[in-house]
């Protein structure tokens, strides 16, 4: 990744270059936590077994997050690693994933009226911050 020299730039140019550098990193991000995929599938499988009345009060994203916080991460950076880790997880961790997701559902059911503000995608948040900084800059200098 290219490092920019910000010393010779205006504030506006610095913000623009930092935004471009961040966007490039997001496009070239080439790693994945295999456990996220497996947990998402298990959350969906168990979600489909719930009554429609109960699903109105459960946020499946919260279930997945709670489960992921109790399971080991399995990061990969290649398709070969991904296939190997998925197979390993299915053979060795299948029962643990199922149990952990069930416990996560139980935790969310105990607190069914938990309202939360979802995280925005990092790029959206950064773009919004950059836009606000530019507006403040322009307002201050014009």
Essential attributes:
single chain, about 140 residues, mainly alpha, two-stranded antiparallel ribbon, flat, Late competence development ComFB family protein, ComFB
Write a structural description:
- The protein has helices at 11-28, 34-47, 52-55, 60-68, 79-92, 94-110, 122-141; strands spanning 32-33, 75-76.
- The chain has 142 residues and is mostly helical.
- The protein has a two-stranded antiparallel ribbon with strand order 1-2.
- Helix 2 (34-47) packs across helix 6 and helix 4 packs across helix 6.
- The radius of gyration is 21 Å and the shape is flat.
Topology summary:
Layout: H1 11-28, E1 32-33, H2 34-47, H3 52-55, H4 60-68, E2 75-76, H5 79-92, H6 94-110, H7 122-141
Antiparallel strand pairs: 1-2
Helix pairs in contact: 1-7, 2-4, 2-6, 4-6
- Radius of gyration, in Å, reads 21 Å
Q: How many strands?
A: 2
SS field, number of helical segments:
7
**Coarse shape:** flat
Strand residue percentage: under 5%
Which stretches are poorly predicted, pLDDT < 50 over at least 5 residues? none
> What structural class do you assign from the helix and strand content?
mainly alpha
Main pleated-sheet profile? 2 strands, antiparallel
Whole-Å distance between the termini? 34 Å
């Amino acid at each position: 990744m290219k490092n920019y020299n910000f010393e010779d730039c205006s504030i506006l140019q610095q913000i623009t270059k930092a935004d471009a550098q961040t966007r490039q990193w997001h496009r070239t991000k080439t790693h994945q936590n295999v456990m996220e995929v497996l947990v998402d599938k298990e959350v969906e499988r168990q979600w489909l077994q719930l009554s429609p009345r109960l699903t109105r009060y459960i946020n499946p994203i919260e279930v997945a997050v709670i489960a992921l916080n109790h399971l080991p991460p399995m990061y990969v950076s290649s398709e070969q690693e991904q296939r190997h880790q998925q197979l390993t997880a299915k053979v060795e961790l299948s029962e643990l994933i199922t149990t952990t997701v069930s416990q996560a559902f139980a935790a969310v059911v105990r607190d069914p009226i938990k309202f939360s503000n979802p995280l925005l995608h990092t790029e959206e948040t950064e773009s919004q911050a950059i836009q606000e900084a530019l507006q403040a800059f322009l307002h201050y200098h014009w």
